[in-house]
Structure formats: structure tokens, C-alpha cells
Amino acid sequence: MDRFSPEGTPGAREVGTFSSLSQITDAIDTGAIFEGPVLKCDSAYNLLLDLGAAQGVLPFAESAIGADCGRVREISVITRVGRSVCFAVTELQKTTGGQYRALLSRRQVQLRCQQEFLDALVPGDVIDAVITHFEPFGVFVDIGCGIVSLLPIDCISVSRISHPKDRFYPGQHIRVVVTGRDQLGRITLSHKELLGSWEQNAADFSAGDTVFGTVRSIENYGVFVELRPNLAGLAELKDDVQVGDRVSVYIKSIIPEKMKIKLIIIDTLSPAPAPREKLRYYFTGSHMDQFCYSPAGCLKQVHTQF
After folding, report:
1. Which helix or strand (DSSP H or E) is residue 27 part of?
2. Is residue 274 predicted with pLDDT exceeding 90?
3. Where are the transmembrane segments (predicted)?
4. Domains of the chain, with CATH numbers?
5. What is the DSSP string of 213-242?
């Protein structure tokens, strides 16, 4: 449902710019959802927007679900400056100076998003999300109208990463799959199931190829080199190689029945670039019942049932 897409999604909602006061009153009557950039946050943590025919004021209490009962921190409001927010117009007021201002609510839009969209989601549903901020344990994503959910680091990809910044960047548009709800009723997410099985990823490589990858971990028995977000191989130990290095590797062998790729590190290249490449999603539908990462006949089975 486009009107409940994450904030900043191109074309999801009408731009909140009005050429006349009558258009603003029409917006109040219809309850339409708009989106526009925040220009300023005042000392009372109200957000100010330019609606064209009037100034838009988004009071702190209407900035998000829970703001009216003390569950929203001021910093989360301040950081909206310079970014787009979704809103509905609730009232048009004439100030003592004769100017008009429109009162806005993001909280009401989020409640509608929760009731009409998010509450209907079931495990296996695949939805759009936008990266909002990082923590060492995972990344927070906007899953609809500024409502945020956690994507744990171990659910980002099969190839292990040290920090979510190794895979994503702020504002990145991604896809996520719903895995369920936690004890507080919040939606839980995963991502790695959308990045393809071992066999799908390994199909891009053959024994004898020399390719490049990123060093993800170094153990006493070898070096794990990521070839794809959902595919890594094990290389022999090599001096002066560090986690995060971009390396060229020779593929010695590919063993599907053991889900193993044996590598030899040839050379250390320039540092791994920041993750700006568009992720390749092998699953492009809107719902998945299950995901099997392991090839047929593999001794170890890695399987997700939604």
C-alpha cells in the first residue's frame, strides 16, 4: 500500500504543497496523507514545514505514536529536520498577525498505517523498508510512515559482518521479510532469505576463476572471504590480511554437498568500498512460505519456515 510506504519513498504520497487555503481545507476533509521536508524544529520540539499557502506546524505530541504519552525522545524529533515526514492536515488556524497556519499530525498517519497495514502482516510477507540508523547489534528500518523496526545483524546476510554498516548505508531502500512479532507485539524482521540460496549464489562462480571478495573473519584455520552477501569461501591463511580487506582470490574448488568453496588469496586490493551497490534480491514476490539455503543432497540443511 503505497500511502503507507516508508518515509522518503519516491512517488508514494502527494507532496504537501498547497496553492490555496481551500486546498488545505479539502485536505482536512478528506484525511489524505501527504509528505514534505521539515525545515525547522523549534524550542518546543514542534516541526515546521512550508505548505505553500500556509505554514505547517507538526506539534511534538503529534510527531509519532507515543509522543503524546512520553514514549518519544526529543532527539528522534530533532533528527527529522532536513528529512521528509508524512502527515495529515488536522486544522487550519488564523494567527493574531493575520497569517494562517495548518496543524499537522504524523501520529494519526502512523496509527492508520499500524491498523490498516502493519497489523495485517503475517510471517513470510515481504515489504519495503528504509534504513534509518545503525547499532552494533542491528539496523533500524522504517517499515511504514516512520514506524521503525529492528533488523538484527545475524539476519542481514548469511555471510557474517562485523557491523551493519558493512552491508547498508543510511537512507537505503531495501526489502525485508516478516518473521513474526515479539512479546510487545512489535514486528520482527529478516533479510538474508531474500538474497538467494547457496546454489543460486554459487552459480556465478566456477573452479579456476579468479575473482575479488571481502575478508569477513580470520580464524586460526583460515580466512573467510565473502563473494556475495549470502556466499563466502574459506581461504588459506595469508600474512598481512585484515578483516575488511578487499582481496583477489583463486577458486580451487566448489563442493555443493558440503556448501564449501575453497580459495587461495592472490593479492590485497584497495580497501573495500562503502556499500553503495544495489543489493540483488533473488526473491521478488510479496510472500514466501519457506526458504531453503542448502543445495539438494547437502548433509547440512539450513532452512527457514515462516
Report:
1. helix 21-30
2. no
3. none
4. 2-114 (2.40.50.140), 122-195 (2.40.50.140)
5. EEEEEEETTEEEEEEETTEEEEE---TT--
Q: What is the pLDDT of residue 1?
A: 54
Q: How many Cα atoms are found within 13 Å in the side-chain-facing hemisphere of 281?
A: 17
- pTM given for the model: 0.93
Backbone angles phi, psi at 64, to 5 degrees: -170, 160
Residue 146 pLDDT exceeds 90: yes
Residue 217: all three cell numbers together: 573473519
User: Residue 67: what residue type?
Assistant: A
Element (H, E) at 181: strand 173-181
78 vs 74: CA distance, rounded Å: 6
Residue 54 in 3-state DSSP? Answer: coil
The answer to whether 57 and 104 have CB atoms below 8 angstroms apart is yes
Whose grid coordinates read 546454489? 199
Encoded amino acid at 183, one letter: Q
Q: Return the bridge partners of 293, or none.
A: none
In terms of pLDDT, which residue wins out, 273 or 286? Answer: 286
Give the model confidence (pLDDT) of 168-201 as tens digits: 999 999 999 999 999 989 999 999 999 999 999 9
Cα–Cα distance for residue pair 150/93, rounded to 1 Å: 38
- Asked if pLDDT for residue 276 goes beyond 80, the answer is no
For residue 126, what are the β-bridge partners? 177
Instruction: State the DSSP H helix or E strand holding residue 180, giving kind and residue range, or none if neither.
Output: strand 173-181
Q: How many Å apart are CA 106 and CA 83, to the nearest integer?
A: 14
Residue 282 C-beta-side C-alpha neighbours within 13 Å: 20
Q: How far apart are the first and last CA of the chain?
A: 22
pLDDT score for 20: 95
* Residue 136: how many other CB atoms lie within 10 Å: 9
| Chain centroid, CA 238 distance in Å | 35
**Cell numbers for 139:** 539496523
